Amino acid sequence: MQEFHLSDPSVPIGGVVLIAGISLLFHQAISIRRLKRGKIHAEFNLRALSVRSVYPAVVMIVAGVLLLAVGSFANGH
To answer: pTM of the predicted model, to two decimals?
Structure first.
């Protein structure tokens, strides 16, 4: 029977939370507009970001990094 370590679920969950935080931050920075004749204009605009809109993404990124760190230290590497 295999032994259960704290790092077993924390590493994949940390990776998923980290990627979700980065994608949320990227999503906040993209602005999409519809133009005439069905065209779509998308631009990457860092000026549109505010502390209030970035806060959930930063919390998710920090939580993901902490989960990855706990997983690597709990396993003894």
So the answer is: 0.74
Please indicate, yes or no, if residue 1 is contained in any of the structural domains. Answer: no
Q: What is the tens place of the pLDDT at every residue in 10-25?
A: 888 889 999 999 999 9
Joined together, the tokens standing for residue 41 give: 């204009």
Dist CA 49 CA 33 (whole Å): 17
Give helix 7-29 / helix 51-74 axis angle, nearest 10°: 160
CA Rg, the chain, in Å?
Answer: 18
Q: Does 2 map to a domain?
A: no
User: Could you tell me if 22 and 56 are in contact, meaning their C-beta atoms sit under 8 angstroms apart?
Assistant: no
Low-confidence ranges of the chain (pLDDT < 70): 1-7, 74-77
Task: Give the helix ranges, DSSP H, for the chain.
Answer: 7-29, 51-74
- 41 in any annotated domain: yes
Domain count for the chain: 1
Domain carrying residue 17 = 9-74
